[in-house]
């Protein structure tokens, strides 16, 4: 019989709200994403100065992951937690800013600090550096939230022993439109790790 | 403080997104990398772009930046001597 897993905790960041396990922990009136995420960072006492150097997609993914992982009593040296993230807009928000910096030959000054974020999976690196994650990570681009794919891949990593836990989900951002839903899968937990429950949690807010 | 050194400190804070760092906290001789402001290699590239964009100084060898970006004082001296705009 195949081993079954559970969802231990989950986080949403959308509609000017940060919530954990369905409970709102921060809400703000800022319609501008940059202002909202900065206020959330300060409210949550995140204390990680490199946060301010990240692009907006990385800020969204980083904060959602941090909300969940800081409760995990992680090892300071190394943690075997895999990351499986997905979205629809890839890194388009940052790609457009980079394009604007290079489309005028007379003012051709591309920013190296911006250019390094013109891939969506960079956010996985930011999370891995902060939490010392030395395990597998993947970022997929889908037309819509794809619970089936996330569930299959997470189960595969856990059953093959390639990860002790898997942080999965959706982090989508384009200008001031944003939607993050991350959940942590492991052996123990209250919620069964199946596509019905994943979709239910995704749509809970 | 000279206008250029003040200007450089403001640019460094703004362009390198140094949240919670103020101009008053950066001494002219503070190291910008390592134990000082703790800037990294991407910040160094960003400073090279800033030299080109704002002062018309194009470094042919990025390794030159190691010496030039030692401190705000060293940067200001170098810019005064080599600026074309």
TrEMBL record, chain A:
<protein>
    <submittedName>
        <fullName>3-oxoacyl-ACP synthase</fullName>
    </submittedName>
</protein>
From TrEMBL, chain B:
<dbReference type="InterPro" id="IPR036736">
    <property type="entry name" value="ACP-like_sf"/>
</dbReference>
<protein>
    <submittedName>
        <fullName>Acyl carrier protein</fullName>
    </submittedName>
</protein>
<feature type="domain" description="Carrier">
    <location>
        <begin position="2"/>
        <end position="83"/>
    </location>
</feature>
<dbReference type="InterPro" id="IPR009081">
    <property type="entry name" value="PP-bd_ACP"/>
</dbReference>
<dbReference type="Pfam" id="PF00550">
    <property type="entry name" value="PP-binding"/>
</dbReference>
